[in-house]
Design goal:
The protein is of the alpha/beta class and 322 residues long. The chain has 13 helices and 8 strands. The chain has a domain at 52-163 and 243-321: Alpha/Beta hydrolase fold, catalytic domain (Rossmann fold), CATH 3.40.50. It has helices at residues 5-19, 66-69, 74-78, 105-118, 135-147, 166-176, 183-187, 192-202, 214-225, 229-237, 269-278, 294-297, 299-321, and strands at 23-28, 41-46, 55-59, 82-86, 128-133, 152-158, 255-260, 282-287. Strands 1-2-4-3-5-6-7-8 form an 8-stranded mixed sheet, sandwiched between helices. The chain starts with a helix and ends with a helix. The model has no long low-confidence stretch (mean pLDDT 91). It comes from Triticum aestivum. Residues 56-304 form the AB hydrolase-1 domain.
């Protein structure tokens, strides 16, 4: 039996979640009358019991799994918030109803709204802070717009191009080197060369895992990205951002846009274009010498900036309510 880095990474991620007081849970969501057989299930991490702190929802992107993407956040955030980290539909332990079409980001948001309603002890009047990264930013925006400020409070959107178009997809593939036919081929690698290129595009600093031998990287990515691969390809096709079915309109909530200045997936100039469309309650925080995942490359500053924003917005809202 050869060495694999996946069990090590999974162990470190789960240990961070357990140390933060989070436990794995699964909930079966109520079925809509129009759905056929089967049910939608959501796997998520959260503290046991009823919330004693304000709720905070962390929404992952298209990476391997939620625990990897938020491993460095759950500890600091859980000291001030009741942290909930779900697997989006078609990721990890979450699955849509088998008879449903591939979920758009709006359908993902609806599933998360149903999850919030199903959380033990969470009042229906509780305002939930939301942080979404990359694809998770699409979902965070959809949830905030659909649920409104009475249910969703401050919103953090990290490295998420809410103005993405087909032309942006083509430009991304060109930046990658022009060797891949679709974004799905690059974002869900099955060979070592593609995985290395994706890491180069996602991170500003060279990653230790990119220097592993080809056979280890190949084994790792095949294990990571073979799971629900066809469903995820259909999921990418179901994204409405950049189509006539999506319109970016201002949010009533306070919004923080976080962006890495060397992001090669969604370049920094898109942050300011998104800001212009989102309205007056938006500010941009640029992270220097980071790329697409500042929460992983500069976690201390990321955590500090996000906590300061969420706590300040929470304080302002409490003063307003009084």
């Amino acid at each position: 039996m050869g060495f694999s880095f996946l069990p090590v990474m999974e162990y470190l991620s789960r240990r961070a979640f357990h140390a933060a007081g989070l436990c794995p849970h699964t909930v079966t969501l109520p079925r809509d009358p129009g759905e056929g057989s089967g049910a939608t299930t959501i796997h998520y991490w959260a503290p046991p019991g009823e919330p004693r702190l304000p709720p905070l929802l962390l929404i992952h992107g298209f990476g391997p799994m939620a625990t990897w993407q938020w491993r460095l956040q759950v500890g600091p955030f859980s000291r001030r918030f009741h942290v909930v980290v779900p697997d989006l539909l078609c990721f990890g332990g979450s699955s849509p109803c088998p008879s449903s079409p591939p979920p758009s980001e709006s359908a993902q948001a609806a599933a998360l709204a149903a999850l919030l309603d199903a959380l033990p002890g969470l009042p229906a009047t509780a305002r939930v802070a939301v942080v979404g990264t990359s694809y998770g930013g699409f979902v965070a925006y959809s949830l905030a717009r659909a649920a409104g400020p009475a249910r969703v409070g401050p919103v953090v959107i990290s490295n998420s191009d809410l103005l993405m178009t087909a032309e942006d997809d083509r430009a991304f593939l060109e930046r990658a080197g022009g060797e891949w036919a679709s974004a799905a081929d690059l974002l869900m690698p099955l060979d070592a060369r593609t995985a290395r290129r994706l890491m180069e595009l996602s991170f500003y600093r060279k990653q230790v895992t990119s220097m592993l031998p080809d056979f280890l990287i190949r084994e790792g990515v095949q294990n990571l990205f073979s799971d629900k691969r066809e469903e995820k390809i259909e999921l990418m096709k179901a994204i409405t951002v950049g189509t006539d079915g999506f319109q970016l309109t201002p949010l009533e909530q306070d919004v923080l846009l976080v962006w890495g200045d060397h992001d090669q997936i969604f370049p920094l100039d898109k942050a300011f274009a998104v800001k212009r469309c989102l309205g007056e309650n938006v500010r941009v925080e640029v992270f220097k010498e980071t790329a697409h995942v500042p929460q992983m490359e500069d976690p201390n500053r990321f955590n500090e900036v996000i906590l300061d924003f969420l706590l300040a917005s929470q304080k302002s809202s409490n003063q307003y309510d009084q």
